[in-house]
Each structure stands twice: as C-alpha cells, then as structure tokens.
Amino acid sequence: MAVLRIGLAQVDVTVGDLEGNLRVIADCLESARAEEVDLLVFPELALTGYPPEDLLLNPSFIDANLKALQKLIPQTKGITLVVGFVDRDRDLYNAAAVLSDGKWVGTYHKAKLPNYGVFDEYRYFRPGQKVPIFTDGRVRLGITICEDLWHPTGPIEAEVRQGGADVVINLMASPYHRTKGAEREAMFATRALDYGVIVAFCNHAGGQDELIFDGRSSIFTANGELLARAKSFEEDLLMADVDLIEVLRHRLRQPRLRLAPTTTEEEYSVPEIPLPRPLVSEQKSSGLKPRIAFSPQGPEEIYRALVVGTRDYVQKNGFERVAIGLSGGIDSALVATIAVDALGPKDVIGVFMPSRFSSEASRKDAHKLAKNLKIRLLEIPIDEIFDVFLKALAPFLDKKAPGKTEENLQARIRGTLLMALSNRFNWLVLATGNKSEFAVGYATLYGDTAGGLAVLKDVPKTLVYELARWRNSKNPVIPKRVFTRPPTAELRPCQRDEDDLPAPYSALDPILQAYVEQDRSLREIVQQGFPADVVRRVIDLVHQNEYKRRQSPVGLKITPRAFGKDRRFPITLRWRSKSDEP
Amino acid sequence: MAVLRIGLAQVDVTVGDLEGNLRVIADCLESARAEEVDLLVFPELALTGYPPEDLLLNPSFIDANLKALQKLIPQTKGITLVVGFVDRDRDLYNAAAVLSDGKWVGTYHKAKLPNYGVFDEYRYFRPGQKVPIFTDGRVRLGITICEDLWHPTGPIEAEVRQGGADVVINLMASPYHRTKGAEREAMFATRALDYGVIVAFCNHAGGQDELIFDGRSSIFTANGELLARAKSFEEDLLMADVDLIEVLRHRLRQPRLRLAPTTTEEEYSVPEIPLPRPLVSEQKSSGLKPRIAFSPQGPEEIYRALVVGTRDYVQKNGFERVAIGLSGGIDSALVATIAVDALGPKDVIGVFMPSRFSSEASRKDAHKLAKNLKIRLLEIPIDEIFDVFLKALAPFLDKKAPGKTEENLQARIRGTLLMALSNRFNWLVLATGNKSEFAVGYATLYGDTAGGLAVLKDVPKTLVYELARWRNSKNPVIPKRVFTRPPTAELRPCQRDEDDLPAPYSALDPILQAYVEQDRSLREIVQQGFPADVVRRVIDLVHQNEYKRRQSPVGLKITPRAFGKDRRFPITLRWRSKSDEP
C-alpha cells in the first residue's frame, strides 16, 4: 500500500479575525498531526474569512494576513498544509499557500474569478496563470480554488494533462442555497471521473452575514465515487486514506481522459515544485475508515441552514440574546423556533404587542408558542401610544378614513418598542418578514422590517409553512391554529393578507420565483398559466419596493437568488411591466 | 475649410425608461439636425440609462433595448449618430451603435470594463476586441466608451496607430466626485495631445440614485487645447466645428506620437467601416463659435451637485414634495436649503418636533430658517408620546438612569412622525445625517436616519459648514447662530456632539478621510499627528456601525469614496484597530 492520508479541515472562521482564525487553524493542525494526516487542507481564504470584501483594499490588512501566514510556517513540522490566504505582488491574488515541514514551499493563485451572483472577485484579485504541481517524487498534487473547478476545463486540465496530477484538491468558499450541496457533489464527482484523478474539496462551515456555508467537504475516487464526506453546516475534520497505487492502476485501465483537450499550452504554465517531506507512506496502518456523513435534504436542509446562519450572525456579532416580536402568526412563530434551536430558550425573548385589532386567537397562540418553546414572553400593549401619536398628528392629517398611515404607525410603534428593549438589554432584534413580503413590499419600513437580521428574508411564504410543518413533525411546538388561520397583519379590522396582495401566496410565490430568481419575462410567466394583470401587478410591486429592501436588514440566503448582494437593482428605475407587454 | 460639425448631446435620462429615453434622444436629434450637425454623440448607455445594474440580467429588457434602437434607425436620415446601448451575441456588451443616414452602420464594444469603486461591469459585460474605424473617405473616426480612454493605451492606441484615426470620440458615464471634472478634463487633454487627435467626450447629466453625473462634455483639439465645453450638471447640446485640414496639418508638423507603442497588433482588430454619407463638408458656413461653459469649483461645485442629485432623486422617483425634520441645527438647515434650491419653496415642508430637551434657540432658528426659505413649517411636540412610550416600557426596563435607550426613543418618535406625514401626503422624507455621523454611527437607526434620501451622507461635518457658508454668501438664509452654536442632538440636558464623539469634528473628519477614503493604516494616521487612542476609537466605531449604514437611505456621492456601492464591507467583521497596532 502507498497511502496518502488527506485531512479536510472544514472550519467556521470569522472575517477579519486573523488572530482567532490562526488559532482555529493551529488547533486543527494539532488534531490532524495526532491522526498522522499527511496533507491537511483548509478552505479558500481560511486565514482571512470569506468574503473579506473591501477590507481587501486596506493594505494594512493584507500585511497582517501575510504576517499571520508567516506565524503558521514553523508549526508545520512533519505535515503538509494547504491554506487559503491573500497573496500580493503588484496585485492581489486569492491564493493557497503550501506549507510543508516548516517551509513555505509554493503558492497557487486562483485562476477563475467569479464575478456574478454574490461574488465580486474581479474587484479585488488578478487571475493566476501558473498552476504548479507539488510532488514528493511519488504522488503529484494539483491545487485549485473554488470557481477553478466549477469550469469543466481550465486549471484542472493543465494540471492533469501537462502536469500529470494524481490528486487535485480544491479550497472552497461555496455559499449555500437549497439543493446546492447535492449539485456540487455531482459536479465534483464528474470532474474526478472526467480527468481520472482523486478530487478532494474543503469548504467553509457556518454563517457570514447573508451567506451560509454548508460544509459537506468531500473526497472522490478517480472513478468519481464518493469516498468520504464531512458534516453539513458544522465544523468537521474529515480524514481519509487514498491509495496511490489504485489511482495509477485506474489510469492504466483508462489511459485516455474522457474529454478532448481545450486548454492551449500557453494558457497556464505548470512548474513542478518538490515537497520537502513525503506525502505518501508505505508503513501507515490503514485502519482509518472513510466516513460519509449524513446530509439533510428538503425542508430539513433549509431549516438547518437557517439555524446555523442565525446562530453565527448573532454570536459572531457579539450578541447573546435575541428579541422577536411575536404576532401569533406563522412567520414570527417560525423565527422564534429557529432562534431557540440556534441559541437555546433562555436566550430568546418573545414580545407580544397587541392593539385593538389583535384577536384573542393571536394572543393565545403567541403565549402557547412561548410556553412550548420555554421562552420568556413580554406583553406590551400599543393602543395608548397609538392614540397619542394620532392626537399629535391630528392637526396636520386631513380627516380621511384611516388607511396606510395608521397601519404603518402601529407597525412602527412595535419596531420602536423592540429597538428600545434592544438598546437597553443588548438584545439583537430578529425581523420576521418573509421573501414574499419583501418582494412586493408588504411590510412597514422601520416597523416590522426593523431588526439586525431578517431570518426569513429569502424564504417565500409557502416555504415558511413547509418549514414549520417539518419542524413540528419533530416536536409540535407551533400551535396548530397558526397553520390554519388565514395570514393577517391585524392592522385594521378583519384584515387578511390575501385581500391586500395581488394574488394568494400559492400563486404569488411561483410568479415571484419566475421573475426574481429566474429572470422570466412577463410573457413567459403568463404562459405558465397566470393572469397577465396579476403578473403585471407583481412585477411592478417588485420594482416599486426596491427602496424598502435597500433599507431592510440583511437576510439569510437559501435560494439561488436572494434579496441582497445577489440582486442589485437601482431604486430609481422606470422599467415596469408595461415595458414588456405579452 | 473641411468642417466636421460635432454635437454632444449631454442628456439626463432615467434607468429603464426606454420609451422616455428614446424620446429624449429623438428630440436632441431634431435640434442637432436643425443646426446642421454632422456627427451627434450621446453618452454611454444613453438608451438604457446608467447604470442599469441587474436589470441587464433580464433578457426581455435587453430585447426591449434592441427594439428601441431599431426604432431610432429610420430617424437618422441626413445625420450620423453614435448612441450607447446594450449589444448581445452570446454575451452582453456595453456598446455604441453608429447610425447614419437611416442605416445601422456598425457597432463598437467597450474594451476596458471598470470593476472597482461603484462599477461592476464584469458582472454583466464581455470586453470588446474590435475597434472599427468609421470613415467617409476623408475623416477617420474612432470610438471609445468611458473607461477605454482612462487608460493611456488600449483602444485609442490601436485606433490611431493601426487605424489612422483623426477624431476619437468617447461615450461616457462618469460619476461626479469633488474636483473630478477638472481631473477628467486634464486627462482627456493629455490623450488628445499624446495621440495628436481630436478627442470629444459626451457625459451624462443629472442624478441616478447615489450617483451624480456632472456633464461637462468637452472637445479637445489635436494639440490638447480645450475647444468647447458643455454646462456642468445640466442637460446641454454642445456643438463645435472641427477643421479636418488643421488636424492633418498638425499631424504633419508632429509626425510621431508622443508615446512608444504598447498595444500588440493581435490585441485589437481594426476593421474599416464606410459611412453612407459624408461627415465633412466644404460648404458649411462656419459661423458656429465654440462655447466654453463656466464650470463651478470648490463649495459651489459640490453644492450644485447636491442640488441636482436631490432634484433628480425626488422627481425621477415620482415625488413632488419633500419633508425635512428641522432641528434648528446646521445639517437640517443645509438640507432644507438644498431642497428649496432643487424643488422650490412650495414643495419643501419643514417639521420641527421639539422635546423637553429642545432649546428655545433651536425653535427660533428653525422658524427663522423656514421664514427665510419661505417654506411651510409644522411643529409637532413629542413629549407626550415620549412619556407614553416610557410608561409602556416601564414594567420591563430596569430603573437605570436614562441613557441611549431614551435618547434613541426620541429620535425614533420623530422618524415615525415624519413617516406618517410621508405616508399620508406622499412627501419624500429627506434624512439630514452627515458623513461624519454615518461613519461613527452617531445617529439613531429608524430615527434620524429615516427617509428616502440622505442628502449629506457623503458630506463630512466640516464640509457641511463650508457649504452652508458658501450658500449664505449668496443670500444669507441660514440664521447666523446656527453656525456659532456648538452642534448638539438635544436628546438629553446640555448634550454636545463633541462630548459624545471620540474627537472634535476638526480632527474626526481628517481621520475619517484618511481611513475611509484613503485606506490609510492606524500607523500612518497617527504619523499625521493624531493621538493613537483617538484614531483607534474612530476606526473601531467605523466598523461597529456598518449595520446602521447598511439600513440607511441611499446618499449622494460627492467624494472619491462614499458610503454605498463604493465601499462594501461585511457587517460581521472582527478586524479592529488592535489588529493593526502602531
């Protein structure tokens, strides 16, 4: 046996926290060394956290990141480590350092820079053109960073064809959206199979603002089979033994790559860099059984993403407790449940703020939920405040029937009360609006949008129900009636969401998905079977409410396109549905 | 004489408004034809407005933009027109169409795509590699788009060296920051001189969200002299006659370019495209005198930028009137003055909302300002509302001395009152915070940050005073005492800004400029003469308050780096001053 023991250090680091991240890396290094790991891989930009955004434009941050890397070098005696950092010559590079046996052996620069969706890498980095092969004389190792391996050709092709790589590793910062884990796994299996090499990727775990990293770091054999997989969403150190002889035998059986060459010789240079210590050992007792961790699917996957995203946002920003306005409805019930799963019941405070329009059912359901979740519930009635506001405004408002002004006023009183509690007790307020509401602006700016994090900002209303049902199937904490009562904001008598919205949620959500996530035209959406006037109204509302979304809290991304860095629209915009008549 | 009459159509279009923009273009076309213009140039992406951002990802928008361009073609009988639009093959291009005598003659694709600062062009476009020369057999015309000509080499070099261009035009969308107009002018003069060609650029005028386009479209002679300049900030149609014989003579006198060649032959292809009608005419009576419009400088330039940015934000978003919380302080006084200059006094409403902590001086100054500006002033006292809030919260708040909670509460009551008026009367609320406050978070989220547009978000406090002084020098509308009283939020007895802030504004502003705009390190700022503990505190406050800025209204960019698209920082960030000890 010629065994290479690979370790994938799936860490949850914090952007900018060079000292803390260095500590996390050093701890993993010790654990891996104890397990006789030969090659230990960390995620993309593990040293700085991902994404550092414009902190990269600060030269002293780049200096500090290089100093931190220097501190790591002497700690690599007896092991080979690959870690993401920011390299600099005249330009900056999204880079991987190979440190081995106390030496900085070489560096790889990311060649394919993503500049779409949530990514802005051309803003900071220059693409690399050198793809070194690292070798101990027996095994040949190629390195790639995230996007590099999302392209069927590119660095991996040069590494395999020109450099004869046996193993290609990938340092990754691949943000979660629903089902992405499975898609990523299928794609990386294909890369391994196409090129007949072992492929191992190491992703981040945990949340960073709107992004959630789902981990699931994996190793694939040269014929594309999943050999090992780390946990989803959590930190993990995944280890597996790779048999070099098997890789080479596989190559002999399948001497041709499955793909015709596309990379021209000049595109990448492929220098060879010797490693100061062997990666492969004969002696190793290969008692290590590769582990394939369970990965959740469907509503469970999304629910866990939201729990991790909430926990990390709260904790990495230095908060212990959160406050949530509980209305008795489904959105706030789900947010409270997620918060309790993220932080525990003692660190979640519910605040019920009834008005003359609140029903007894709402009060009972809010209290029942709080009891089921074992959280504190404060009750602060708002009627008196509402009346004093109306009195102060009376000389200036004309005598119209109460309308949006009065409805928004109630929502803003609630937002102000929550923020007062937040100011006094340092509780982070979690906003409870969902994606359907944010899309069409069915929310009061500075009212129910107030808060530090909008947990459901990327969760359409119909998915809110699905997640709540799934969570209740484990342990029924959300009262039954919350599922069956028609959704209402309770800002006027007998109000129902579906009277205010252009369509019931069951139609609104697929229209929004088609328009917001898939860039479908009015014509195409109408062809899917929705009435043209409804679709038109939805599109117009989406654009008219950009200003509300721009001032709303950051929300956790769980779809291919979230409201946030993912979707950048002007506020001043005169493109409306009529510009695109079917 | 062989005269080419160039027209630069410096328009103020709206993003997404294809129909409206087409109308603006057609109107300019008629005016230019009446003046016998041979070559009429519009700004970059004039058809779509700039920047369309993710609207570009919507295929039906691209279709509609191509249809709009088609409609323009038959209108170009007897004239040659160059207009910015979005071209598409498999990819999208930031493009210029050359339409001449009723035919679409050819297309230029922007070669250098900016992806820094406020720009994200790699997100949407593919760079062009073809730089055609358009010719009527006598004059040779090269086209460039904005960034293309900010590089000393690139397309212009290929056009001149390989294509023998006599005239290079530039379609521009160059957002304003202070002194940029003058820098741009100096640079384009250099390009004309370096390459010995006539250079003419056409910029946008007016505001688009945070961006202000300052116009100043200009034409430079082949020896780098300014021949003509359009107005600053406003729409304008600039026309000038260029004598081709003079250009050619100039070339004969100075047969060599001032620069050594840098563009390799393969980088760009330079096809020649014939024009269906002559650009140059002998007969033209050259009675047209080139006009060099006045361009404001210093505080006047910035003040006018803010006026235009405010006017366009309000009007393009469909509002007529604005409401401003007048505190009696300098910030709100300046915002009200700018609003009156932008919209006229009848469309500006001041709202004075005193509490027990408001001084008589504040009331008097607010009223005096309103009187001087001839605007309506509403007075809504907030004490009763404040008391009822405190009563509602009393069972939950511990009995601490009043602090931040109570201060923020007052600010949020004011924000809520302004928003109620906004909801009822459709007044857009203008927020009055300045850049110094936004930088260190000296503002209440959902309180004084509430509003649709933060007019002074990019104006440091010391510049607020300078702008107010300049405006008063024209006509003293802001009461004298507003300049001399120490700034205060009046949220507690005897409060003064400078007691709450880490340094007086005279020190705070240069520290902020060094850190936020210039990416200086702690060490460098301390070397400029500021105490290390103060600088450290400022840096930490800047990072701690990212969450407030992210939920604050869009603000008008007037410095090289504004809080907005220009500066992208994570909220979750553990990079602090201590990470960078001097």
Topology:
2 copies of one chain form a homodimer.
Chain A lengths: L2 E8 L7 H17 L4 E3 L17 H14 L7 E9 L3 E9 L2 E7 L23 E3 L4 E6 L9 H8 L4 E5 L8 H16 L2 E5 L2 E4 L2 E4 L3 E3 L5 E4 L6 E8 H10 L18 E3 L5 E2 L16 H19 L5 E4 L4 H14 L4 E5 L7 H14 L2 E4 L3 H11 L10 H22 L2 E4 L3 H6 L12 E2 L6 H14 L5 H5 L12 H4 L4 H13 L4 H6 L4 H13 L1 H5 L3 E2 L27
Parallel strand pairs in A: 1-2, 2-3, 6-15, 7-8, 8-9, 17-18, 17-20, 18-19, 20-21, 21-22
Antiparallel strand pairs in A: 1-14, 1-16, 3-4, 4-5, 6-7, 9-12, 10-11, 12-13
Multimerization state:
homodimer
First and last CA, distance of chain A = 66 Å
Major sheet details of chain A: 7 strands, mixed
Q: Largest chain interface and its two residue counts?
A: A-B, 86 and 85 residues
Contiguous helical run count of chain A:
18
Q: How much of the residues of chain A is beta strand, in percent?
A: 15-25%
The percentage helix of chain A is 25-40%
Find the structural class of chain A using helix and strand composition.
alpha/beta
Mean pLDDT rating of chain A? 95
Using the alpha-carbon principal axes, give the shape of chain A.
Answer: elongated
Q: Which runs of chain A of at least 5 residues are low in confidence (pLDDT < 50)?
A: none
- By DSSP, the count of extended strands of chain A is 22
Give the C-alpha Rg of chain A. 27 Å
Top keywords for this entry?
homodimer; 582 residues; alpha/beta; 7-stranded mixed sheet; 22 strands; 18% strand; elongated
